[in-house]
Design a protein that fits this description.
single chain; 263 residues; alpha+beta; Thrombin, subunit H; 8-stranded mixed beta sheet; 6-stranded antiparallel β-barrel; 17 strands; 20% helix
């Protein structure tokens, strides 16, 4: 169910609208491969390119960064190619661990700062950095609404083509999230609704991917805005359904933004 001025099922939304949503989200989203070295088995992960003030980076899950730190190289996939970063050249900004929730150490969100000379390289390859400060100024408290079409980006491990190094990404529609808050950090629980290709056997590898909310007209389905609204950090199977657990917009726009701005 989609909450709007009237209620919709995802199946009610026109393909043209869904294609535009996916196209827009992919401008800001990246699949990543974590390597010990060229001959090692790659670990897939996801993230969202974001701009905080003048700083460009990737907002992802904290446990993804913890894994990256153990390795030598990080490959960020762009189109048919990839850019390799030495992990020692990267820096991160994020909260300390405060406790355990959903069987995970939380908060599980972080911003990875990219070397400034690489930002233009991403933009030259038709990638964009989502402007967090601008979005906060534009939407204000509407950032925390649950109205609209929700979906999530990621790179499931089952879809990784290790022989060719290709990292297919997917965008799944989701239910309206169930929300909770603890120690000022908010959490979302979303049921995955497959609509872009078949559902894989599991959704591991989605970690770090963005959760997005699309505002649209209930009359002609024109898109008002597509808002970066959360970060995946855990995936689980409940019965015959897959569920994504992630941080919500308060964690991004109130807590993470404040942490990065004060560094």
């Amino acid at each position: 169910m989609i909450k709007n001025s009237k209620k919709f099922q995802i199946s009610d939304l026109p393909d043209s609208m869904l294609k535009e949503v996916r196209r827009s989200i992919r401008f800001y989203s990246v699949a990543m491969l974590i390597y010990k070295g060229e001959d090692s088995k790659a670990i897939p992960a996801s993230g969202t390119l974001c701009r905080i003030g003048q700083q460009c980076g990737i907002v992802t899950a904290r446990h993804v960064w913890a894994e990256i730190e153990k390795h030598l190289e990080l490959k960020i996939v762009i189109g048919q190619g990839a850019h390799t970063f030495k992990v020692s050249y990267l820096a991160s900004f994020g909260p300390s661990i405060l406790g355990n929730k959903f069987g995970c150490s939380v908060p599980d969100i972080i911003s990875i700062k990219l070397p400034s000379n690489f930002c233009s390289t991403f933009e030259a390859n038709r990638k964009l950095f989502y402007p967090l400060n601008k979005s906060l100024s534009k939407h204000g408290n509407n950032l925390y609404s649950d109205e609209g079409y929700w979906c999530t980006f990621g790179s499931p491990e089952k879809r990784l083509k290790r022989e060719s190094g290709q990292v297919p990404s997917v965008i799944y529609g989701t239910s309206i999230p169930q929300k909770c808050e603890e120690n000022r950090w908010d959490y979302l629980e979303l049921d995955v609704i497959a609509e872009e290709g078949e559902m894989p056997q599991d959704v591991r590898g989605m970690s770090g991917g963005g959760i997005w909310r699309t505002l649209f007209s209930p009359i002609d389905f024109s898109i008002y805005d597509i808002i970066f609204s959360g970060v995946n950090f855990y995936q689980t199977e409940i019965g015959k359904k897959y569920q994504i657990i992630g941080h919500g917009p308060k964690s991004i726009y109130k807590n993470l933004l404040e942490l990065v701005n004060t560094q």
